FAD:protein FMN transferase (Finegoldia magna), 373 residues
Amino acid sequence: MKKLLLVFLTLTMLVGCSQNKTENKPVAKDPAPQVKESGESSSKDFEKHEATLYDKFDTVIRYSLYTKTEKEFNQYSKFINDEFDRLHKLYSTYENFDGVDNAKTINDNAGVKPVKVDKDLFDLIKLSVGDYAKYHKKTNIAFGSVTDLWKEYRDNALEKKIIKIPSQDVLKEKNLHTSIDNIVLDEKNSTVFLKDKDSRLDLGATAKGFATEKIAQELEKRGLKSGIISAGGNVRTIGTPIIKGKDSWVVAIQNPNLNEEPDKQYVAILKIPGSTSMVTSGDYQRFYVYNNKKYHHIIDPDTLNPANHFKSVTIVTKDSGLADFLSTTVFVMNYDEGRKLVDSLDGVEAFWVFENNDIKYTDGLKDIIELEN
């Protein structure tokens, strides 16, 4: 799953997938959100402070907080940095870390034994399994055997210039090991077990949103009144911006054709009142080209190939974890299916950029959206 800041009349942030073309290696000039001052604080008691965090969840994380003192900001900042670091290690399916039984540990022990895990990892897996059944069976965290194969080919293309695609026969064989029923959860003992030795977890569609929401909620509990976090394709606002004369955050949806249209940074801006999440999934992150066709990282479980309905899908709702899950789900559905799903959910809105660059969005965005012509 899962943002350049533009200067409008208030604090503005761009939401969209990071443009990194290699995984696990954030580049120095990532067009992720950069928060800039564009208005004075509405209260002399508060000042705006900003920070950037690298190498967590394979993206650039930026946040802006309004606090009364720099000391208060530093306390919040330490918590944000420590939590993103801890949750990054916990949710990783590709790296082992000393003293941490994480998602990769579960994969390493598939078909061998249950793994006792931290409550935050257990809760993420449990929620993802529940959302799979509750919303639509398109986002499956047990789909790792297929997505790992595509990652291998993508890494070879981007890093070694060996440009190929996996055969459909091999993909079908890998797909035999993707049943979500392979995940066995023991809540009493806080263990997770993959019954099939060839099954693999892939938390890419859920982990970053879940982590961002968890951190934002804790900041609110600790007393933060106003702030915004952008973690790759995930933007989470807290309260309202303490900027004179402004009562909403202005968040821009990134132009998915930014590489070809560098002068057109965004396709729309949304004025977001209060604590809300926006998450974008798109085909312009983590991709390579083979025979003039783009192969990106969001795989359709029906075709076992990259989904090709849209260039990007943005979900707007309160919870960043749900927004992350739904942005991937809706991205791999055709428009009629995705629109039906979104319209059935209270408090959920969506914005689609089609392959032909057409744009559609749900009725709930009409009063807060401004399209870029």
Q: What stands out?
A: The CA atoms of residues 118 and 190 lie 7 Å apart. DSSP finds eight helices and 17 strands in the chain. The longest strand covers residues 47-56. The domain at 103-194 is CATH 1.10.3980.10 (T-fold).
